[in-house]
Amino acid sequence: MTGVQTCALPICAAAVRQLGTFQKPDLLEVISQAAQDVNLLVSTNALAGLNEYQDPVVIPYLSNLAKRGGMIGDMALDRLAQLDSATALGTARGLLASSQVPDRLYAMRVIGAFGDAFDLAELDKIAKSAPENLSQRNRGFGFMPAINLARAAQSAIASIQSRSK
Fold this sequence. Notes:
Layout: H1 9-21, H2 28-35, H3 40-51, H4 59-68, H5 70-83, H6 85-95, H7 101-114, H8 117-129, H9 134-137, H10 149-163
């Protein structure tokens, strides 16, 4: 964990995950700090600890992590969307400007689920910025399909439009 020198990483990771099961508000700061650790074993387990909280008191901590983007931030955005769609939507709108493709994909998924007509113009810009050609359609890596931000934006637009009918 951040600032802890004597703890073996697997033990720290397991401990911080377990702390979340107590769901005590006074532990949120420690768990949130661990979720920002550079070691993914620690940070993912800390996020799992935060995900144990059912109380809205965890929302600001998830929101702060989500705003940072990156793998932990994107997973925090997912959980935030389950607890507070309005806060998640605001965070997702901010992540659309990220230079990281995963951040933008997670943002578009949240916007597609909870966004409104306000979001259509920005999504339309993304949809028109990188149109997919036929040679890209089936290219991916292994079993993963090709990632195309334009297609993700079109999907989010379709979700918003289907809800507004």
